[in-house]
Specification:
By secondary structure, the chain is an alpha+beta fold. Helix content is 42%, strand content 23%. The protein contains 23 helices and 30 strands. The strands form seven sheets. It has a six-stranded antiparallel beta sheet. A five-stranded antiparallel beta sheet has the order 2-1-5-4-3. It has a five-stranded antiparallel beta sheet with strand order 7-6-10-9-8, sandwiched between helices. Helix 12 crosses helix 19, helix 13 packs across helix 18 and helix 14 packs parallel to helix 15. The radius of gyration is 50 Å and the shape is flat. The N terminus and C terminus are likely disordered.
Length: 876
Amino acid sequence: MGPFEHGSAPAARPQQQKQPSQEQALALLVASFHHAADALFIHDETGHVVELNGQACVSLGYAREELIGASLQDLDVTTGRDPAALQSIDQRLEAGQTVSFEALYRRKDGATLPVEVHVRRFEHGGRRFAVSLARNIGERQRAEQSLRESEERFRTLVQHSFDVYWETDAQHRFTRQEFAEGLANAPARGSEIGKTRWEVPHVGPDEEAWRRHRATLDAHRPFRDFEVVRPTADGGTRHVSVSGIPMFDAAGRFTGHRGVGHDITERKRAESEREAHVAFLENLDRVNRAIQGASDIERMLSNVFEVVLGIFACDRAWLVYPCDPASPTWRAEMEHTRPPFPGVFTLGGEQPMEAGIAGRFRAALAARGAVLFGPGHEHQVPADLAQRFGVRAMLALAVYPKGDRPYLLGLHQCGPTRRWTAHDTRLLEEIGHRLADALTSVLMWRSLRQREDELVRHRTHLEELVAERTAELREAKERAEVANRAKSEFLARMSHELRTPLNAILGYSQLLLMHTEPLEPRAKTGLEAIHSSGQHLLALIVDILDLASIEAGRFELDLEPLDLLPFVNGITDIVRVKAEEKGLTFAPPVPATPPVRVLADGRRLRQVLINLLGNAVKFTERGEVRLVVRATPTKPDHVHLRFEVHDSGVGIAPRDLERLFQPFEQAGDRLHRASGTGLGLAISRQLVGLMGGEILVQSVPGQGSVFAFEVSLALAQGDVPVADSRMPVGYEGERRRVLVVDDVAGNRRMLGALLGALGFDVDEAADGQQALDRVQAHAPHLVLMDAAMPVMDGLQATRRLRSLERWRDLPIVIVSAAVSQVDQQRCHEAGASGFIAKPVDRGRLLDALQRWLGVQWRYVTAPGAPSPPIPTGTSP
């Protein structure tokens, strides 16, 4: 019979039930495929999906169209598979076997899905396919992990909850003992079975404690923390704390106790050490109070020795000086005894250095710690002390006060024989340290008292000298302040005087170079020379002012967003021309990757780099010059930048490195030194210092130099505007009126020519009062106002205009040769909209016009038209 027959033939199938047709069977198979509870994939021999069911889409989070044609290998993110295992899977599939393994699939949302995969290959229509069933095993894995963690917690609890588990019968005999792993000095397993607790080896507690414990057991009561002291195989003892509860059977009959024990040996040792340490600290505190309560050395030593006799329970304590075996005599400083023991020394008197005493001194000095004398110790008590004074044990220690020879501190035991302990020696050594400090203080105090009179004698004379020197310093300070103010005023005045003619020179040279009509080559060369020389002269003026501002502590960095890569490329474009004129190779800079945008004073950073690169070109006759820039992120919002300038030039001699960064100092040969002021490196070093860095130099004469500095800058947010290098020739829209106010006619004509060439209507005024009248009469759209003028200066005129309701929003840009931070701050406080330094840079003027008038420039580039001069960035 078959498994379903149960002894009778199966009932005949009703006639109306027919075998399903092939189409019905296929439909049933397809429905089963698509409604399966597990994910099913049919894929070709390359692993690409040709069919899948709905559960596959649900499990992986993809739409059907996204998975058809996808590779199962791309979905499988399992790591750590053995190549040999993969080869075995492929061989078993090739043999027609069904292969099962666990894998990790990646869902569309990025999460991972642990699955159990069953794969089998088959052929259909002449092609090879495979069907894969992927069953989600996430819940199973979590359950298994939870079970493992629960089992681990249970094992840990059993292992670490107690040191011994025990059970006894009704007669209190051990029937079971289980000891924790690693328990030191545990008895052999089963060695105590059948014995009662008081029958196993023990050294405690006392009989009374055992009697009370047996009464508890006989009364069938629970107990806690009964302490037993047991001997160990190594000759020591082990303390065990035992707790237990009574056990009863179903009929209520007492059957014994069960409980646990904890090894408390370390706790007992710690308690003992803590008690000893507390006593140790209390004794030291008593010594400290004895030291602090006395005002002279005799009283202090008397107090200390009284305490020491009580602490050590000895018969005599003494201190002798000097502790020096080479000395012919010694002196007893202090001795205290307990009656009826006589004294050994005569206090205060010089006594001969006998051989026994010298031996004690020598032993104490060699030990650098407490030395023990007596039975059971390394040294024997000297015979004269044993015979004459009955000394049976002695403890000696050399005490070393600072600035003096050592003393010898000692204790005598004259009663029963005593063996000194490690606690005694440690305590005496600590007392010796405190006594040494106290003696040092007393001896220093004595020395200070001896010098006090001498100090008093010199005090009056010293006060006179200090008063005289203070007056000299005050006078020198006042002279220095006057000189510093004079220097600042002179530099400011000279800057104003030099910038004023430069305003016309650079202004007109820019204006002439703006013309779109080609200039005759000779004229163009001359104009470019004039403009270049003016820029060089302006750079020298700025260097001098910068140095003065830095030295006066009035220099501040102007931080703004800076795109590093275009910034570096702009600098190298300037230097490359100079390098190529000398036939040098200028290597393109190594870019900072990734590109960074930082908050920095771009003008000052450019000034430093151009100075270093310019010096490299100047002092290099052949070879190459290159700039290396490295960017390293340090914090989420900061970057560490390193700039290196390499050259193959003449190099710098070691003797010149010391004065390289001094103002007005130049190193190198006379030919190169003649082409500079000696301020560039001094200012560059100061600027880098303000940025938080330092310029470092490595140089080998005849081989070249490397100048490098590092700064840490904050990252800038947002985009940095890109400057438009095209040359505007006009603007869109209605004509705008600009009022130019300057007491120098040449400055007015130069600005008028620049503005007129761009299509502005230009009006002029020679002082502040005329400016007020012109504004009221002609209502300009913008005012370019000089600061220093007769009748009424520009700041006063600006304040007057701002006081009038109609002109509160009129753009007023101060154009001045006074360019310090203080001067610019005064302009803003007066109500100025902006500030442009003289000489007027055309680019800054155009920026101001575009910002305050909102004009849209028109650009026309005529064929062959010269490029405008590139601003060097030296003007503020």
